[in-house]
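Hi U.,

Before I forget, here's the chain from the pilot set. I'm dumping it here mostly so it's searchable later in email.
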Amino acid sequence: MKKLLYIFFAVSIIFSACKKEEGCTDSLATNFNIDAEEDDGSCVFGITGGSWITQSLEATGTMTVSFGGFPILDSTLNIVETNPDSLDPYKLTFTDDGLYTEHDNLDNAVEGGTWSVSGDQLTINTPDTTLLLVIESVDRDNAVLNLHIVESSNDNGVTIDIDITQTINSIREW
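Structure:
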């Protein structure tokens, strides 16, 4: 009986010693585990690293224009744009030090500022305004961001009300 216990103990030690450590094996992930030998699907990616190239913009919402209280335009918007020359932003790069750069489709830097993330909210401070976006999803190669724009202006009796949600679908260029 004693021999059987020793054999069982030795076999269990051999099998536990041979077990590969699991974890995130993608060195680009925020939770990369250098000791992991087997990927367990737990990799987490942030918006930093590489550049985000916009693939499509979808805008849905409403816009109304009135003059002196009389409606001139009352429109529902549902637009999908996939032409690279028309996409803005075309390319965004977020760095670990909280800075971002926007590039046009010729890769010229056109704007820069700061950014931060809290939960699923991405705050981008441009030279002109602060944008609050919701990170719908981000993985190794894709990101979906939503920007909700609500504006109202009244100038010389013309009132413009806008309520639009813009969805930005991007791929990461490493």
